[in-house]
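# nightly structure sweep
# worker-07 picked up a monomer target from the shared queue
# config: single-sequence mode, recycle default, output format = structure tokens
# input follows
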Amino acid sequence: MSRAFVFPGQGAQTIGMGKALADAYPEAQAIFNEVDEALGENLSKLIWEGDQETLTLTQNAQPALMATSLAAMKALDVEGVTVARASCVAGHSLGEYSALAAAGAISVGDTARLLRTRGEAMQAAVPVGEGAMAAILGLDFAAVQDVAEAAAQGEVCQAANDNDPTQVVVSGAKAAVERAAEIAKEKGARRAVMLPVSAPFHCALMQPAADVMAEALANVEIKAPKVPVIANVRAAAVTDPDEIRKLLVEQVTGSVRWRESVVAMTTSGVTEFWEIGAGKALSGMIRKIDRANGVRAVGTPEDVRAAVESLA
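# output follows
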């Protein structure tokens, strides 16, 4: 059985995530310590004892979710399941950074600093209230691209996340996204839901953040990953460090091609997906993409033990 390790993106964050892993595995605790040291603050205390609103701030949620994913990966590692047991890795948006760190391409400290920079830059790119995102349910990606084009009317409106066959997210200027939600319903969408986000991610309005990330990534060592990484913007495997750097910059303004990424993995022979870290959002998407896919969430010590036993 061929498996992929996949890593969640923003929205999966919850107070207390990863605490049981840190309590059960000193090596998982060490990941949180390393992230705290890299950021020069006690992010762990916020993750485990803080308030949801502060944790959800983009600049906090991004490194926090990465830390939780890598703590779960470290717990698996302790139990003898290394990243080499996967045929590939992938992550949803910021989860791509977790995937790269898990595969040894970027150090934990550098990943934490990059995600803090990424979160701050994405938040700063568009004044609060000027951008928006909406989930369109019941139309496919091509249909939503047409909707976004019709709604733009001179403003930015893009199909930003191709999550699964039933859910595509649009992003852009607030008025344009609101128009897209209405047009989508007219075109037969089951629902169009405005999302509670602080910025319009993965669209052209994020170009200032992409420029910041180009500079930040230029100064970070990226090694060839131990297993191929399926890149969000290409929905295909990459292993070359320079290519990884380039695609991480493109990812800031580009669409998250998650549905296509999962299809690419299954086409290459993957039959089982392990969602490493907080929540089960990706597991739900992966099932909708192909019911034949086996999925497993690995976010607690119990999950780790069950996952290890499944390989026995």
